[in-house]
Amino acid sequence: xxxxxxxxxxxxxxxxxxxxxxxxxxxxxxxxxxxxxxxxxxxxxxxxxxxxxxxxxxxxxxxxxxxxxxxxxxxxxxxxxxxxxxxxxxxxxxxxxxxxxxxxxxxxxxxxxxxxxxxxxxxxxxxxxxxxxxxxxxxxxxxxxxxxxxxxxxxxxxxxxxxxxxxxxxxxxxxxxxxxxxxxxxxxxxxxxxxxxxxxxxxxxxxxxxxxxxxxxxxxxx
Amino acid sequence: xxxxxxxxxxxxxxxxxxxxxxxxxxxxxxxxxxxxxxxxxxxxxxxxxxxxxxxxxxxxxxxxxxxxxxxxxxxxxxxxxxxxxxxxxxxxxxxxxxxxxxxxxxxxxxxxxxxxxxxxxxxxxxxx
Lengths: 222, 128
What we know:
Distance between the termini of chain B: 62 Å
Structural class of chain A: mainly alpha
Strand content of chain B: 15-25%
Helix content of chain B: 40-55%
CATH architecture of the largest domain in chain B: Up-down Bundle
Oligomer: heterodimer
Shape of chain B: elongated
Strand order of the largest sheet of chain B: 4-1-5
Domain GINS subunit (chain B): 6-58
Largest sheet of chain A: 3 strands, antiparallel
Number of domains of chain B: 2
Number of strands of chain A: 5
Family (chain B): Belongs to the GINS1/PSF1 family.
Number of helices of chain A: 7
Domain DNA replication complex GINS protein PSF1 C-terminal (chain B): 76-127
Keywords (chain B): DNA replication, Nucleus
Structural class of chain B: alpha+beta
CATH class of the largest domain in chain B: Mainly Alpha
Distance between the termini of chain A: 25 Å
Largest interface: A-B, 36 and 38 residues
Strand order of the largest sheet of chain A: 4-1-5
Pfam family, one (chain B): Sld5
Largest sheet of chain B: 3 strands, antiparallel
Strand content of chain A: 5-15%
Radius of gyration of chain A: 22 Å
């Protein structure tokens, strides 16, 4: 991978800031996003820039390999690396897709309230969620609901489809030192249970407490 | 009485939704074309749902040359040993060489080339 050390330029949306990543860092970021997505109970922010850059990188690698000498050991190692990267990328996208399917009414509801800011779900995923909703509603209606008495013919999907369990416990590793994290709010028996998170330490906590830190990248789910 | 009706509605809803989830799993196991034995067990509306699901999956699953319905398990090696289950004919591998896939013949082929054929049941991964 060190041979392919072209630096990638990347424009973050709207700003003219250039964030330049080496391929190794990019793959690192992809793996972090992948693990976070796997262990978080809710759908995290879409890292489409990482996905696009990784796709570009894979294409570069393929082109380089085509030009390389045949039978070279490096070729098989690189091919193996490419397969692995492809797997991580596929797994990441599959994980997101499964979460969208699981929580589709809640995600669509959240998107409706977010329209003024930038949408957190990439348009293809949003379109997929909408189609999935329409499809499922049509199916339920045609199969069962139209045979039911009139006052039962609507099913409120927001209530019947379970919400993501934000109180699930997750393992995490701290990347940036955090101070004064409120674990339990003050109630009758105890005062505020507040802790400091040291860099490099590992914890088991409720997801709800650390959700904003995962989004900002200060914490890695493991 | 209304409560009983609601309960019945929820039970039917749960049953139908569970069927949908299983059909969805079929798409990921078998690919776009379902074996006819399975299709017999599905109602017309379920086929419609399945087709709709397939269609909405396409832009996501196959975009930019990355088919996410492949690569379900982490790759262990570049080439895998496969045995041919049915006669398939000529199969082209990378450097233009082609391999004749006859029943019971064994080959050592690049993994990504074989995936599709393994799915279709033409090749079989040999683990020995």
